[in-house]
Write the structure tokens for this entry.
Amino acid sequence: MPIVTEVEVKSLLTPFHDKIRTVFEGARAEVAVMEAFRRGQGMRDYRYPRTLADSIYDAMANLVGDVFDDENDVSVIFEPQSFKVLFYPRGEQPILARFKKGDEEGRGQNHLTQTVIAFTDPEQCLPGFPKDAACIDITYASDELGTKIEKVLVVYRDGDRVLWSYSISDIGSEMRDSGNVLPFAPIGDRPDSDDQLGALVLPKASDEAEKEPSGE
């Protein structure tokens, strides 16, 4: 994989920042509806933080295809345990992103597998994806109460070491202030099968199932 700078990635992703933020915030809003329903039925809140994180990740997986549906330069790749988003504007550096819950440094949280090692090592190529694609994490952090998305970070790593990162949270705040936040589709309006996503979904060449927990 090529080595990329913060300036390069920010320039390429800037047109997509608002939609990236919408994926995270829309997923958290959907889970908030489920939490309210549980309380309304007299059910207890989730005991473990990882349960909430997994619910948010699943909601993101359901939402991400809708958000980027009209983008010809973006593909969503669904795998058995996770999804990735490939940004490839014509003539520009391809960027392969994972959408994850971040740790205290903004890194995506994972069990250490060979696939994870390859994804976070700039000198390795990730099987089944473009060899010239640079791999990044796009992660979120919740507020202290865990009730909303407080921060969204773009993070570039070399293993466990964060080489650079930047926040797109301010952009989300500006959008909310201006009233231009992108709407997300209600659950009933979303595609029920991969066939309905059409060319948005790219097949993965490798059959290796990646085990990437979104929680803690």
